[in-house]
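job 3f2a | input accepted
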Amino acid sequence: MKKVNPDWWKTLFDETYLTTDSRTICDQGLTCREVDFLEKVLGLKKSWPILDLCGGQGRHSLELARRGFKEVTVLDYAKPLIEIGRTTSREEDLNIRFECKDARETGLPDRMFRVIILMASSFGYFLDETQNEKILCEACRMLMPEGSLLLDLPNMEYVVDNFLPQSWHEANEDIIVCRQRKMDGNIIFSREIVISRINGQIRDAEYCTRLYSQEKITSMLESSGFDSISFQKDFVSHEQEADYGLMTNRMIVIAENSGCIQK
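job 3f2a | predicted structure (263 res):
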């Protein structure tokens, strides 16, 4: 693998991504099961303001709005995904706010949200760990006192024990997705090659994701202003057993805002 561009996340999440990862991010049954879990574990109330941080096309927020949640915001850097979410929201007459912004500096007001969710292994994309920490500090700033942050992370122990350096799957009748992975410490470097039976190769991209132990993420959350941190390991939302990459087996982390605003 060649050296990963640290800004890979700015271009990977587009219409092709919706195809390569469709068995997860376009599976409505899976999304409903995950929202069932969110409602239960967070005790969500329909009047609470909720932020879907790094939420892509807003699949969880769309489902929350369908269930009657009234103040839902989706924030993501990927404009193609935000536009898809906006279109779906308009077509279904749902009241969702979509923001195309950087999660490290959102520009949103202090103490705006009762709950922030960061789902689908969307944290840990930066090689510079201080940039990942900025996301946590920003989340703490936007949470109301005693508000909750839920992080959906790869289960590091499972990933290490079941690491596959190569995998492939058929995204649909035309698209084949091949992935090569290398683990370097707590970072997984991946190369994704996407091939169309009709049009040939349509993507050859490099990206990376950090793995977090319970101790490491606890330290980062505490230094960002969070406390009352709890964990649930071995979270699985897919019904079929298969290699779903870092989405196969996850660790759910819930932390509360201690009340201080991080600047």
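job 3f2a | The first strand starts at residue 49 and ends at 53.
job 3f2a | closed
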